[in-house]
Amino acid sequence: MPTLLGLRLRIFLFFALLAVGGAALAAGALAFGWSRAEGALPTAPFVTAFVVFAFLNAALALGIWLLFDEHLAKPINRLAAALRLQAHAGVPQGIEAVPAKYLGDLAPAARALSKSVHGSLSDTAGHLAARGRSRRADSAWLTDLLSEIPIATLLLNPAQEIVLYDAQAADILSAIAPPRLKAPLSDYFDPASLAEATSQLSGAVEVVELRLQDSAHTHSFDAKLKALSDGGHMLFIDIHPDQRSRISARPLVFDFDLMSAADTGAIHDTPLKDLCFVAFDTETTGLSVSKDDVVQLGAVRVLNGRVVEGEVVDTYVNPGRPIPPASTRIHKITDADVAGAPGIAKVARALHHFSQEAVLVAHNAPFDIGLLRKYAPETGVEWDHPVLDTVLLSAVIFGTTEAHTLDALCDRLAITIPPELRHTALGDARATADALVKLLPLLEGRGIRTFGALVQETRKHGRLLRDMNA
After folding, report:
1. Mind listing the pLDDT tens digit for each residue in 230-257?
2. Does residue 137 fall inside a structural domain?
3. What's 187's DSSP letter?
4. How many CB atoms lie within 10 A of CB 33?
5. Distances, alpha carbon 409 to alpha carbons 100, 251, 366, in Å
6. What angle in degrees, to the nearest 10, is found between the helix axes of 7-36 and 44-68?
7. β-strand pairing of 220-227 with 294-303
8. Each residue of 180-224: pLDDT tens digit?
9. Cβ atoms of 285 and 321 closer than 8 Å
10. Residue 167, class by beta-carbon neighbours within 10 Å (0-12 exposed, 13-18 middle, 19+ buried)?
């Protein structure tokens, strides 16, 4: 199916066909001349002439293809990538003059269109920024208001998944497991008491009091469950005065799109926009999966195409061994930093809970996923999550000939990594998440809309990195 072939490959096949066709014609001409010759003629000169011609003909076709590839195919791919970045990810990209000079009027026309679209996008971005400032102000006001009330507040959708939680609820959830949107409430609290309270709600009874126990049955809370008209629920948990004083500063975390979130089917058929992603990164004692250990781990969640602010994992990890000075020079983590930190078993279990029902995303995933899978026996959890690698996503969008380091990808996507956060686990995880958010619409713009279709595309670039999906 030629439509599935890339532009550069199609041009190569065109010149390969010319070379084969030329050799076939030469062979036919020599055979015809030999057959018409009077008397017996030795075949060796004909064979030698054909071999020499075929070699020179193939070399000529290859040389012309290389020129076409360098001055036509690659510039067209770069031009298409720049236009897609602006159209689908809102990243303004200049059209490079030198690589595009052989494209005739195509490059100036694209540059003019790009400038026009960028102007329209800038106006739209200004309006959206003003609305965003208003929404942030409203969110800050609501956060302050809820923080003054000694009640932890959670909003649940009809499937009893978390849609909103305030700072006080975040502290209660954190004592059980890392808080996360779209998580079933039963991941934190005993489902029996929740089911009993839900069954008591009816048209006449809108609010039910209950004694809520955490999933480990070590703590209990006085709570109220209120039914909402759309099938969702509000859960209010009483906060004791001594608990209020310990509440950490957290933003109000919510995504109201989750109120109508539909159940997804098989992962391969699930649209990319409906998936939850956890972008994570590790800092280590070295670069060997088998010989080195994790010293820092950071993770960020992405839902509905947005980074969930306030939902992170950020922790040092005690590797149980000295950190080599060469590694410290890169990530600045010392033995003193990790001295009182938890071991990998506790940290990995927390990340596993944080990543439930999510696609794991990493830059150079074979290294980071390989480390997690190495620790599986001592952590007691299996890392069988679906996996995406932003190196391979970059190759799908921009082609294999471009640079695919995290710095190069972020530069291409207009993502700034603060220097003090580069080579920190959370900083690199956030950069990976930001890159994913901008790559998703680019993938959909190319017609790659489901997880299965994306994995199929990334496996075409297996010579860069091994795919980590089972």
Report:
1. 788 999 998 876 555 455 556 688 888 8
2. no
3. G
4. 11
5. 21, 29, 18
6. 160
7. unpaired
8. 999 999 999 999 888 888 888 876 778 899 999 988 888 889 999
9. yes
10. buried
Of 213, 233, 254, the residue that ends a domain is 254
> Could you tell me the residue range of the domain that residue 229 belongs to?
149-254
Two tokens, residue 398: 């921009």
Q: Show the tokens assigned to 79.
A: 């031009």
Identity of residue 350: A
Query: pTM surpassing 0.85?
Result: no
Number of domains present in the structure of the chain = 3
Question: Could you tell me if 392 and 398 are in contact, meaning their C-beta atoms sit under 8 angstroms apart?
Answer: no
Q: Give how far Cα 321 sits from Cα of 4, 295, 375, Å.
A: 50, 10, 15
Instruction: Indicate whether 348 and 419 sit together in one domain.
Output: yes
pLDDT at 244: 54
Residue 308 maps to which CATH number? 3.30.420.10
Instruction: State the residue for tokens 């909402």.
Output: 228
C-alpha span between 253 and 259 (Å, rounded): 14
Reported as a pLDDT band with limits 50, 70 and 90, residue 2 is very low
SS3 content of the chain, % helix, strand, coil (to 5): 55, 15, 30
Strands 294-303 and 306-316: antiparallel
Residues 282 and 408 in one domain: yes
